[in-house]
Amino acid sequence: MADGTQHGRQAVESIRALFPDPVPILGIDIDGCVDEAPIFFRILTRIWPGQVFVVSYRRDRAKAIADLARWEISYDQLFLVTALDEKAAVIAREGIRIYFDDQPECLKAIDALTSVMLVRNGGNFDFDDQRWMFSDKTGKLLQ
Fold first, then answer.
1. What is the pTM of this model?
2. pLDDT in tens, 71-100
3. Which residues have CB under 8 Å from 47's CB, separation 6+?
4. CATH class of the 22-120 domain in this structure
5. How many Cα atoms are found within 13 Å in the side-chain-facing hemisphere of 80?
């Protein structure tokens, strides 16, 4: 049976085979995202064969770095923004093509070239009612 290192190499090669060169840049948010599923993001960022950028709405860079280290998140660059709409600008400027966040407000301005992944949590999903929570600015009721 292969050890963890061998499994890791196999995972990286499997992911790399899915994408043309260069492998797309992966982007992740911290709050409501990494902190909701730190084991998933630890694994994902360690096996991602391309660059990983963290894009987060935070002011305290030292705390962001400490939190990412505590959760053992591997990343190449950390971008802190001071407004939610700045995330889309960073994602476009840096060429991030796969992005995880929990706030539809951040995701709606991201261009169509980037695949977005909405992380479910208590801030965007009513677990009692089993329904997503959106504002008029981010959701449209289908009839």
1. 0.81
2. 999 999 999 999 888 999 999 999 999 999
3. 8, 11, 12, 15
4. alpha beta
5. 8
